[in-house]
Design goal:
Oligomer: single chain
Structural class: mainly alpha
Distance between the termini: 107 Å
Number of strands: 4
Largest sheet: 4 strands, mixed
Strand order of the largest sheet: 1-3-2-4
Helix content: 55-70%
Length: 694
């Protein structure tokens, strides 16, 4: 045997002994210090001595510390559920949440429903009696403000607030935990704060035990009472409709067939009101795909597709507070295809085009019929104007206000149960400023003082509706004046928009849009052009009488121009490195150009010049979906936020999971929208129709 081999054989055990003596023993000796510097939980238990000696919390924290030092399995399970510094702090990850569900499950002694073989394998390394803490535990969140300059700031809410999940003895009060954390932060015990050179200042510690006091608030009682009344009306209405009314119709129809009568069954007004609350009949109304040949079926497809793209954008907007990889989120907004998300506000303009088109098409269609009968208006029809405005108000307001009330109750519950914070303070704003929503003036105020940030659209739509109806009534007696005013409003809107953009040095990036939301996004004078273009389109379609006789070359040219308008408006902001002048020109023209493209699609589909496009947009599948538009739009941000607020982990965003989340949120939104429609929207609409004849 070689000498070198003998020496090697002797050196191996010697080196192992030296490693054990100098390294392992050293680490064991300094284990408490290492743990205290790296684990927020261990830092808390190590400093529990500052609490009152008679404190139950102090005693149980000491037991937990001893258990961790001795590597007892129950204490390691508690340690394992607590939050620790996560990777990605520099790029915005402020979530050290741990595992809330695992913490709350530590005291659950019910065996997992696994096979005996699997449980036996598990039992080899774990003794069942040693699995559970000798005291009850609870999950807490500590929110602390940091002043790290090394972190990349996006000017978003709460980005300087670190959230630390703590699984601690239930006997500990938030006051006791706060006392210990303040000492830890003051002494910079955690090594993480030294490595990244920042201080922590405790904001508050949250105990997730809900006292349900908010249920005794008068607002909760009012909303709850309304919901109970509606529920009872739905139950009685459905029972009456299904058991009595439907059988009466069957008997009447069978008798009518026997007698060859053309008479139809006419329920009384009281029956109509009660049947209006029938979930059965209201469901049939939603899923009825029969439509008149005079209706423009493509409108259903345009509304539904636009709403789906809006939902995709809502996933990004309303999940922004929950990202743990903000840099990646911003990267996903780069490039041409990403404009489908970042420019999704244009899809909302599609609704304005359709709304303007419908009121104009309906008005001029009625006017043409009156002309055929020899009835010509010579005076401004104030009664028609007010009737239409009241009808519009009644159509939107009941479901709108009730959703706000339900959301207020929901946010009361979720803020007491979610580990995350919500940037929009719905509790305060909705309790204080709900009347602005009722009057449809909430888009005139700062977004920080608005209940339901996304409800700006309803206010814009109402304002445009009133302006549009005034112009339509004026056109009956002074058509040229109404046309001139329409052109002046459109030109003035574009000039004003360009001026606002240029003077405020706006560049169309996501963070700039968030900063200047009140100036650039929600004002009616910025959004009115698509509505007016829709009205002009409706007028010309009535004049064309559904026919557009043009050569094939001209048709191709119009399609190219229409699609080019959509393409330029949607993808024209791909390059963000532009001058303020270029940005001002783009934002001033993009909505108008987009509206022209959508208007052409409406014209082409209405005059049988759209082929496969019309077939797709007029597909009957879109009809029920389009009927849920109002409820779905109002509910989608709530559903979207709930997906993240009810989670115990932050969101790590990628394109595929973004799309999957959008599809899932869309499905849940339409399911909730369907319930809201059959319970509130349709019953309230039918109630006012049957009672007031609106």
């Amino acid at each position: 045997m070689k000498i070198s081999t003998i020496y090697s054989a002797m050196l191996i055990p010697i080196c192992g002994y030296i490693f054990n003596f100098f390294v392992i023993d050293f680490v064991a000796a300094d284990f408490p210090e290492i743990m205290e510097r790296n684990s927020p939980l261990y830092a808390i238990v190590s400093n529990s001595h500052i609490l009152n000696s008679s404190s139950v919390c102090r005693n149980e924290l000491s037991i937990l510390e001893e258990g961790i030092d001795n590597r007892l399995i129950w204490s390691l399970k508690v340690l394992d559920t607590n939050g620790v510094p996560e990777p990605g702090f520099i790029t915005g990850n402020i979530f050290w949440l741990g595992l809330r569900s695992q913490c709350l499950d530590l005291g659950n002694r019910r065996r997992l429903e696994t096979s005996p073989e699997l449980f036996e394998k598990f039992s080899i390394a774990h003794k069942f009696d040693e699995e559970f803490p000798p005291f009850e535990v609870n999950y807490f969140i500590a929110r602390a403000q940091h002043n790290a300059t090394i972190q990349f700031h996006f000017d978003r809410p709460f980005e300087d607030t670190i959230n630390i999940g703590l699984c601690l003895p239930k006997s500990c009060s938030t006051k006791e935990i706060s006392l210990i954390l303040k000492k830890i932060f003051k002494e910079k015990t955690l090594i993480f704060t030294n490595v990244f050179s920042f201080n922590l200042n405790l904001i508050r510690v949250i105990n997730f035990e809900n006292d349900y006091e908010w249920l005794y608030n008068w607002r909760s009682i009012t909303v709850g009472t309304i919901l109970i009344i509606l529920f009872l009306m739905i139950v009685f209405g459905t029972i009456y409709d299904f058991i009595i009314h439907q059988k009466r119709i069957e008997k009447f129809n069978s008798a009518k067939n026997e007698n060859n009568s053309e008479e139809t069954y006419k329920p009384t007004k009281a029956e109509k009101i009660l049947i209006g609350f029938s979930a059965y009949s209201n469901s049939l109304l939603i899923f009825n795909t029969k439509s008149s040949s005079k209706n423009i079926g493509a409108i259903n497809g345009i509304k539904s597709m636009s709403l789906l793209f809006t939902f995709l954008a809502h996933i990004c907007v309303f999940s922004d507070n929950f990202f743990d990889n903000r840099i990646r989120a911003f990267r996903l907004t780069e490039g041409m295809l990403a404009q489908l998300i970042t420019n999704a506000s244009l899809f909302v303009d599609s609704f304005l085009v359709v709304s303007g088109f419908l009121i104009s098409w309906s008005h001029f269609n009625r006017r043409e019929k009156l002309k055929e009968k020899g009835n010509v208006n010579t005076k401004f029809q104030w009664n028609v104007l007010f009737h239409r405005i009241i009808k519009r108000f009644v159509r939107l307001t009941p479901v709108y206000m009730l959703i706000i009330g339900i959301a207020w109750m929901y946010y009361n519950w979720i803020t007491r149960n979610s580990v995350f914070e919500i940037s929009e303070n719905q509790l305060e704003t909705c309790a204080t400023y709900w009347w602005r929503n009722l009057l449809y003036i909430n888009n005139f105020f700062s977004y920080k003082d608005v209940c339901f940030l996304w409800s700006w659209y309803l206010s814009v739509d109402m304002h445009c509706f009133i302006i549009g109806q005034i112009l339509l009534c004026l056109s009956d007696i002074f058509f040229s004046l109404a046309a001139a005013l329409t052109c002046c409003i459109m030109i003035g809107s574009m000039i004003l928009f360009a001026h606002i953009s240029y003077t405020n040095k706006y560049i169309y990036t996501m963070e700039e849009l968030a900063k200047k939301f009140d100036l650039i996004y929600t004002p009616t004078w910025i959004r009115i052009n698509p509505y007016l273009i829709g009205m002009i389109t409706g007028y010309f379609l009535i004049k064309l009488k559904g026919k557009l006789e043009i050569e094939k070359k001209t048709l191709w040219a119009l399609w190219i121009i229409g699609l080019l308008c959509i393409f330029v408006a949607l993808f024209g902001s791909t390059n963000k490195n532009v001058s303020f002048t270029t940005a001002a020109i783009y934002v001033a023209c993009s909505r108008t150009v987009w509206a022209i493209g959508i208007a052409w699609i409406l014209v082409a589909c209405s005059t049988n010049h759209a082929g496969i496009v019309n077939s797709f947009l007029s597909f009957k599948f879109w009809i029920p979906i389009s009927r849920l538009t109002l409820s779905a739009y109002l509910l989608n941000p709530i559903v979207t936020q709930s997906i993240f607020l009810l989670s115990e982990r932050s969101l790590h965003i990628e394109m595929l999971n973004l799309i999957a989340l959008a599809l899932g949120a869309s499905f849940l939104t339409y399911a909730c929208g369907f319930i809201m429609s059959i319970v509130v929207e349709i019953p309230m609409l039918l109630f006012f129709v049957n009672c007031l004849g609106l």
